[in-house]
Amino acid sequence: GAVVxxxxxxxxCKSGTSVKIECRSLDFQATTMFxxxxxxxxxxxxxxxxxxxxxxxxxxxxxxxxxxxxxxSLTLSTLTVTSAHPEDSSFYICSAVxxxxxxxxxxxxxxxxxxx
Amino acid sequence: DAKTTQPNSMESNxxxxxxxPCNHSTISGTDYIHWYRQLPSQGPEYVIHGLTSNVNNxxxxxxxAEDRKSSTLILHRATLRDAAVYYCILRDGRNxxxxxxxxxxxxxP
Lengths: 116, 109
What we know:
The complex is a heterodimer of chains A (116) and B (109). Chain A has no helices and 11 strands. Chain A has strands at residues 4-7, 10-13, 19-25, 32-38, 45-51, 57-58, 67-73, 76-81, 90-97, 105-107, 111-115. In chain A, the strands form 2 sheets. In chain A, strands 2, 4, 5, 6, 9, 10 and 11 form a 7-stranded mixed β-sheet that branches. Chain A has a 4-stranded antiparallel β-sheet with strand order 1-3-8-7, with no helix packed on it. In chain A, strand 9 (90-97) and strand 10 form a beta hairpin. Chain B is mainly beta and 109 residues long. Chain B is built from no helices and 9 strands. Chain B has strands at 9-13, 18-23, 32-38, 45-50, 55-56, 61-64, 70-75, 84-91, 103-108. The A-B interface holds A 1, 4, 6, 32, 34, 36, 43-46, 49, 91, 93-95, 97, 101-102, 104-110, 112 and B 30-32, 34, 36, 38, 41-46, 49, 51, 85, 87, 91-93, 95-102.
């Protein structure tokens, strides 16, 4: 099956610094990518939807200036957490889909972000 | 919003079949029904999806009610590796993917 690679899998950063998370679709072109955040024992919360070549659509309550999403190519999307604070510590997950509602989504392995 | 309702948790014995229900009474005609599962500290994994007809693949079967307001994911012989949180999701015309609370499946040896 298709593979989505997310990197890094784990990162620790100091409060006030920025962290970039990469999401790559390795063997297909992803017209749409989704970014999620997941807190312990909770479900995935959709943060934003990004389509290649256009601006991401952010969910209500998600600060677009804090969580910068770039989807510059059909195989790469990045999420940058700017000026990270301890409350941003979470499990971040990306997902990639090909065009069409009939196609399944493929997920990265997730990034565990810890802000100290 | 198209939404789904699933039981919070279910238990099964190893090597027995498991039927995981999902209600989606507000489903529209073009919504696909997707199932994913998530093991601890991992990203979700695709299981199966369908529109109207029942579907089978190597992992599971998906039974869709005639009125499409509910569906059931069937694991034919549960193994310990099937213990996970299972999510039933509707993919709608806005092309987003929102997760509900899911069902935590426990498999007992």
